[in-house]
Design brief:
Number of domains: 1
Number of helices: 6
CATH topology: Rossmann fold
Radius of gyration: 18 Å
Oligomer: single chain
CATH architecture: 3-Layer(aba) Sandwich
Distance between the termini: 45 Å
CATH superfamily: NAD(P)-binding Rossmann-like Domain
Shape: globular
Largest sheet: 7 strands, parallel
Strand order of the largest sheet: 3-2-1-4-5-6-9
Length: 245
């Protein structure tokens, strides 16, 4: 087994799946981590070189066992992409404070555990990439993100600390802020989607231009993982051409 290994968390039906397909197409054996066993089984059958590992990142002890299983069955990951996310959309008075701790565990603490588990092998090899996907919640807080934004901001700052530590050791750490509504299928039909996931009434372009395409996001992440070491990016912000910002 000579092909490199990429470990991708949060392999759902949009960005995570697109990431798994892109890295497999790029010659990687892909360890796909997610909670949905049926979806992972279908992807494992579809994507050559991909293996399913059913795991809830909320369980940190089980996550450590999963990393050991990935090493044993596929090899030492050269790329880590933390795409898993736990979120909630309540104000600080409405939401259960326990949600903040759950979100932090999945978004930030799990990333720390994964980095601690995988970085030593990358350092020994003198190469590797650790990337996380985020959104504008990692840069600013809004009322209904009170129990979510702090965990994404911490995730981004953790990545920055990792980048400054691991960069001189040959490991590229980057953070991808996706400033967009992503064209996901799990939110249902057009009339079932929340207002924030539909174009505003005065949107002058075709509807599809409102959404970031998962395959296009995956292409940017793949590029980030393979940048020349003389021009590494840490903060990568991507958005549709017509996004208002």
């Amino acid at each position: 087994m000579t092909a490199p290994v990429a470990l991708i968390t949060g392999v759902g039906d949009s960005t995570g799946t697109a990431l798994a397909r892109r890295f497999a197409a790029g010659g990687y054996r892909v360890a796909m981590l997610a909670r949905n066993a049926a979806r992972l089984a279908a992807l494992e059958a579809e994507i050559e070189g991909a293996r399913a590992f059913v795991r809830d990142l909320d369980d940190l002890e089980a996550l450590a066992a999963t990393v050991a299983e990935v090493r044993e069955t596929l090899g030492k990951p050269e790329v880590l992409i933390h795409n898993a996310v736990a979120h909630s959309f309540e104000t600080f008075l409405e939401g259960d404070p326990a949600l903040l701790e759950r979100n932090f565990r999945v978004n930030t603490t799990a990333l720390l555990h994964l980095a601690r588990a995988l970085a030593p092998d990358m350092i020994a090899a003198g190469r590797g990439a650790i990337l996380a996907t985020g959104n504008t919640a990692s840069h600013r807080g809004v009322p209904n993100y009170a129990l979510f934004a702090p965990t994404k901001a911490a995730q981004r700052i953790l990545c920055q600390a990792l980048a400054r530590d691991l960069g001189p050791k040959g490991i590229h750490v980057g953070y991808v802020t996706i400033d967009a509504a992503i064209d996901v299928t799990w939110l249902g039909s057009e009339d079932e989607r929340p207002d924030w996931l539909t174009p505003p009434a005065d949107w002058p372009w075709p509807r599809e231009d409102f959404f970031a395409k998962p395959a296009a996001i995956a292409e940017e992440v793949f590029h980030l993982a393979h940048q020349h070491r003389s021009t590494w990016t840490f903060d990568l912000v991507i958005r549709p051409f017509a996004e208002r910002w």
